[in-house]
Amino acid sequence: MDQNEVLLVASRGLEAHHGLWQWKCTDSDWNGRQIDTVRQLSSLSGHPRLPVVYGTAGVAQEGTLHAWRIDEAGEVALSAASSQGAEPCHLVVDPSGRLLIATNYTSSTLALQPLASDGSFLGPLALVKLSGGGPEIDRQDDAHPHQVFFLDETLIVIDLGADLIREFHVDFEQLGSVAIREVRTTPVPAGSGPRHGVVLPDGRLAISGELGENLLTGHLGCAAADWANVRSTRINGPARSRWERNYPGDIRRSEDGRHVYFANRSHNTLATFDVSSDLPSFVAEIDTTVNWPQHILVRPECVMIAGWDSSLVVALELRDGVPQQVKSLFECEGAGWLHAHRMT
């Protein structure tokens, strides 16, 4: 990381030492300090222009949303409010910086929080209820939005519960829940349980299937049968972390878009696929050396991984776009999310 960046880590847990941590690398040594105590801080996302970072928190309970300003002058907790739903797990700010959208995974809603010019929360939060389901009844009893991001001006929602990729139009002249309108849904193969997605250079999406243990690539608007569909791991048999079944998690792309990196959390591995052609091809799978690799951050020289159950952050050196040997960077209890933050 360059001298103007810090690494923010969501330390997930229930104790006073859990919450938002800031880590800085100087002369190959990592030093960290806690910025705020937050119970079950689960994801982080930055403002498109301001040195403001947002977070979701809470598991199997009413969740919370948080905003911090972090710059060279120090850090300030700008806002904290209820997400008005259970288990918020992801969030994004629109490119204009006016609206924060968060996913309430368990209660099947999108939370819309208007933002002030300084990035703080402005006015009441509104909810948009999603509906749907899939074949795995225990996990797909209803819509369960797991990720949100913008593709140009379109809001993309990855819905694990309904096996759908949802697209929304955002109207900033409207207030409340009518500010977003669903314009299209794209189904993925039933039972895939799509968790996270990335956009590839040719416009295709690469999607991690948490329930189907699969990697999907395809275009928005295509039929479920048209998605390229490959297994996320070469490992067979029972998994090593938390469950006997493998539950893949995060997916990220290389900077040039040729590769995607896919965390097989229950096997504790990182799989690399070449996605430069229509059918993804398996390249390599490496032991991350951490238990439950929850989140991936891609840097020009390496892939960083937050090992939640190991309370470790590690880095895998990239060689021709393929992760190599693992280097342990630092311990941070309950490390569950990584965010590179520029101090401006």
Specify the overall morphology.
Answer: globular
**Approximate helicity band:** under 10%
Overall CATH architecture of the domain at 40-187? 7 Propeller
Q: Mind telling me the CATH class of the domain at 40-187?
A: Mainly Beta
CATH topology of the domain at 40-187: Methylamine Dehydrogenase, Chain H
What structural class do the secondary elements suggest?
Answer: mainly beta
Number of helices: 0
| Unreliable runs | none
CATH superfamily of the domain at 40-187: YVTN repeat-like/Quinoprotein amine dehydrogenase
What does the average pLDDT come to?
Answer: 97
Strand order of the largest sheet: 3-2-1-28
Largest sheet: 4 strands, antiparallel
Task: Give the total of beta strands.
Answer: 28
Give the terminus-to-terminus CA distance: 15 Å
Secondary-structure element series: EEEEEEEEEEEEEEEEEEEEEEEEEEEE
- Rg over CA atoms, rounded to whole Å, is 19 Å
Organism: Devosia rhodophyticola
Pfam families: Lactonase (PF10282)
Protein name: Beta-propeller fold lactonase family protein
Family: Belongs to the cycloisomerase 2 family.
Can you give keywords for this protein?
344 residues; mainly beta; Methylamine Dehydrogenase, Chain H; four-stranded antiparallel sheet; 28 strands
